């Protein structure tokens, strides 16, 4: 029988139940037991739903209160010394590592956070040092397996593999591989204690990366050793997000029961893996897209599976999504406002499980007489011909692109002279754009969207919020102001709602990090801007002050990356369409009197292909799209961009090619480590290294910020430096933001005086 499988399920819940429970727990409104009850209810619902849909291999231990890699670090006892004074039982230590901890005389920053491969999910980076001793320090995988078993569901526990865990840790992964012999006994203990499970899923996503000889040797040595366990579930190694490429022979030679490969992101590897993987191993075919929301072309997928069967036979075949469904919304059944035709083209997590199950049935029964196949065919037909999708004017504008459209009028040196009229001091202070989205702000916006509040009342409310924010920034002494973005729900959704070719869901939530969820827009057709999107409120904010006011936009690459993107044309073409729309907005902002315009591109690094050989092509069109959006303004208009949670060493030339007048970056958690790339490259433009970690509720001190600025001034010329938080402040509370920004301004004044 063909096995229908799943690699992971969304954990927030259809109505973001986990988010709400987490935030209530952090606020002291509910107890730990109440939080854990919400979590166990969500797990039970997911396991039982997957079983009911015909999934045979159902994952457990894919659930996490904050992050699965944080759980893995705690599982092996990789807890940095600074957290070990906190109680091990309960959740105090757990959330201190995730969010920082401040109180009762203890002041601890959080672990660093970065993007999970090329997704918009953030994981907490384990801190592992060469002197660390490992031990099995958590029973979570065993407890969740037993929890599911009590419900009548025999699950497949999921763990991050030992080699990938070391490679993804804070220190140099190649150096940490020397700790492998110290780590493997923990996995041996874990697998033995999970001996009642039939299978265990070992995620080794690093097998799709460029690997050193040391890393390849580590993989071989690890699984040779684990193969000798006398008590252990059957092992399935799961890879995803790309092709095995030159790691094909290695992956297929590992002594495990099965191998999962991503046939959505890398369909070209099907035949090679099918031929190379020994016939006594299970082939897990990731044939349903776990990262996008388009309905599967079941006939095409079945054809791929039949090719696979011709090479290997139908025995030992597992059908699965390409990766964990963590990256998909839960269920489109609750969507009541989507266009019916568009909705028929979509598949959320539960639909994807149905697609997996029906493909397994079609293989076993040898026919496609299922309603799902006819629905798939109808979706393919209507989508390809729909006038919703195609706009000839947009296509023609992209074809008219010339090299001059992606270049500023003058080089940076000349622009800098023209921008001196902004009259900014050394180390100018600013924020990244958004201010706290308080309960009042969210309630008013929801009331307006639901038709309970009229336009005039809503506009009066937003105007009052902007007035207060501008006045407060002036009193504080911030040099370049922002309007606070009180009218905006999300930095991508807000723009997508005003662009043609985008659609939005009511409950299409996807986890970004911790309790932070986003509703990615759906780009279903050609993109254009019918009218200005931000000009009215930006012009109003500038009218309230003589200080420079930043116009705030989201860049084309980030809008692309943080959306569910149409799959019927190259991503580069869609990005060019978005770039022209943002270009029009930039032009209008300048005409409205905005002398500083920030075009945020935090996703440039995130979109980088996993293999270095593919970088050049991607960076060429990504940088070009940013420059298209930014290059219509005069020399005297200053263009900023923001890039958070990125490792810049490998792409610093591309950052330079973007030619923004100033780039702000996340550096507070890494203590300015990221600035080394800018110094080595001799980056000529201006840089705003973050001095305030906004992803933690912890309030940094003035002295901490002074130390960070001094460190930055040792690496870069002080004339290049701006002073700003790591990111926007919408997720923080005013009680945290006010003292933090006050300290930031004072820190800038102190270091300005020193320099």
The total count of strands amounts to 21
Main sheet properties = 8 strands, parallel
* Number of domain units: 2
CATH fold annotation of the largest domain: TIM Barrel
> Please, what is the average pLDDT?
94
Per DSSP, the total helix count is: 28
- Class per helix and strand makeup: alpha/beta
Characterize the overall form.
globular
CATH architecture of the largest domain: Alpha-Beta Barrel
The CA-CA distance between the termini, in Å, is 73 Å
CATH class (first level) name of the largest domain? Alpha Beta
Query: How big is the Rg?
Result: 26 Å
Describe what this molecule looks like in 3D.
The protein has 755 residues and is α/β, with parallel strands linked by helices. The chain has two domains: 383 residues, TIM Barrel (Alpha-Beta Barrel); 272 residues, TIM Barrel. Helices cover 41% and strands 12% of the residues. The protein is built from 28 helices and 21 strands. Strands 1-12-11-10-9-8-7-2 form an eight-stranded parallel sheet. A five-stranded parallel sheet has the order 17-18-19-20-21. A two-stranded antiparallel ribbon has the order 3-4. A hairpin with a 2-residue loop joins strand 3 and strand 4. Helix 18 runs antiparallel to helix 19. The longest helix is centred in the middle third of the chain and has 22 residues. The radius of gyration is 26 Å and the shape is globular.
List keywords for this structure.
2 domains, alpha/beta, single chain, 755 residues, TIM Barrel
């Amino acid at each position: 029988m063909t096995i229908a499988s799943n690699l992971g399920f969304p954990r927030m819940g259809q109505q973001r139940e986990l988010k709400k429970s987490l935030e209530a727990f952090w606020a002291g409104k509910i107890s730990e037991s109440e939080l854990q009850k919400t979590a166990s209810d969500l797990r039970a619902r997911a396991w039982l739903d997957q079983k009911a849909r015909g999934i045979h291999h159902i994952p457990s231990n894919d659930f996490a209160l904050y992050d699965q890699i944080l759980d893995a670090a705690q599982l092996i006892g990789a807890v940095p010394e600074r957290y070990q004074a906190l109680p091990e039982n309960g959740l105090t230590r757990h959330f201190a590592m995730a969010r920082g901890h401040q109180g009762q005389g203890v002041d601890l920053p959080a672990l660093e956070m970065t993007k999970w491969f090329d997704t918009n999910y953030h994981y907490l980076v384990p801190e592992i040092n060469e002197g660390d001793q490992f031990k099995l320090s958590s029973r979570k995988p065993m407890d969740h397996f037993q929890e599911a078993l009590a419900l009548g569901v025999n699950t497949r526990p999921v763990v991050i593999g030992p080699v990938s865990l070391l490679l993804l840790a804070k220190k140099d992964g190649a150096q940490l591989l020397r700790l492998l012999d110290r780590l493997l006994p923990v996995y041996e203990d874990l697998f033995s204690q999970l001996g009642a499970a039939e299978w265990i899923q070992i995620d080794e996503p690093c097998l799709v990366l460029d690997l050193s000889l040391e890393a390849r040797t580590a993989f071989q040595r690890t699984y040779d050793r684990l193969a000798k366990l006398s008590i252990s579930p059957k092992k399935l190694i799961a890879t995803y997000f790309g092709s095995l490429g030159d790691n094909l022979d290695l992956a297929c030679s590992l002594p495990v029961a099965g191998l999962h490969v991503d046939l959505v992101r890398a369909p070209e590897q099907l035949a090679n893996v099918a031929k190379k993987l020994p016939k006594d191993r299970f082939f897990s075919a990731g044939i349903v897209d776990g990262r996008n929301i388009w309905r599967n072309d079941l006939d095409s997928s079945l054809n791929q599976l039949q090719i696979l069967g011709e090479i290997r036979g139908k025995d030992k075949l597992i059908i699965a999504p390409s990766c964990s469904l963590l990256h998909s919304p839960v269920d489109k059944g609750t969507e009541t406002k989507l266009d019916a035709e568009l909705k028929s083209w979509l598949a959320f997590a539960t639909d994807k499980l149905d697609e997996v199950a029906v493909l397994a049935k079609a293989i076993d029964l040898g026919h496609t007489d299922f309603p799902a196949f006819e629905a798939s065919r109808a979706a393919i037909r209507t989508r390809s011909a729909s006038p919703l999708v195609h706009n000839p004017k947009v296509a023609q504008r992209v074809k008219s692109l010339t090299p001059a459209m992606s270049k500023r009028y003058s080089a940076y040196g000349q622009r800098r002279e023209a921008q001196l009229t902004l009259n900014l001091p050394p180390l100018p202070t600013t924020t990244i754009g958004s201010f706290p989205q308080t309960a009042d702000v969210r309630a008013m916006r929801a009331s307006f969207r639901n038709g309970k509040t009229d336009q005039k009342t809503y506009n009066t409310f937003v105007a009052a919020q902007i007035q207060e924010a501008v006045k407060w920034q002036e009193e504080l002494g911030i040099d370049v102001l922002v309007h606070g973005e009180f009218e905006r729900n999300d930095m991508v959704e807000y723009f997508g709602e005003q662009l043609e070719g985008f659609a939005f869901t009511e409950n299409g939530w996807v986890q970004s990090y911790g309790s932070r969820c986003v509703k990615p827009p759906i780009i279903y057709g050609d993109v254009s801007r019918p009218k200005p999107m931000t000009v009215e409120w930006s012009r109003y904010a500038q009218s309230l002050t003589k200080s420079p006011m930043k116009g705030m936009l989201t860049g084309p690459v980030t809008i692309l990356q943080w959306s569910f993107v149409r799959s019927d044309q190259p991503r580069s073409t869609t990005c060019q369409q978005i770039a022209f729309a943002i270009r029009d907005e930039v032009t209008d902002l300048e005409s409205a009197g905005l002398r500083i315009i920030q075009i945020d591109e935090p996703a440039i690094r995130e979109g980088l292909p996993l293999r270095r050989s593919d970088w050049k092509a991607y960076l060429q069109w990504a940088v070009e799209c940013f420059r298209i959006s930014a290059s219509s303004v005069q020399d005297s208009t200053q263009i900023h961009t923001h890039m958070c949670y990125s490792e810049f060493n490998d792409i610093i030339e591309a950052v330079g090619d973007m030619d923004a007048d100033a780039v702000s970056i996340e550096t507070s958690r890494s203590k300015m480590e990221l600035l080394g790339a800018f110094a080595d490259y001799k980056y000529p433009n201006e840089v705003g290294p973050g001095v305030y970690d906004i992803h933690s509720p912890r309030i940094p001190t003035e002295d901490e910020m002074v130390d960070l600025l001094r460190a930055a001034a040792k690496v870069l010329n002080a004339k290049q430096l701006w002073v700003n938080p790591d990111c926007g402040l919408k997720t923080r509370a005013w009680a945290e933001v006010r003292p933090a920004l006050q300290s930031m301004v004072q820190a800038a004044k102190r270091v300005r005086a020193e320099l």
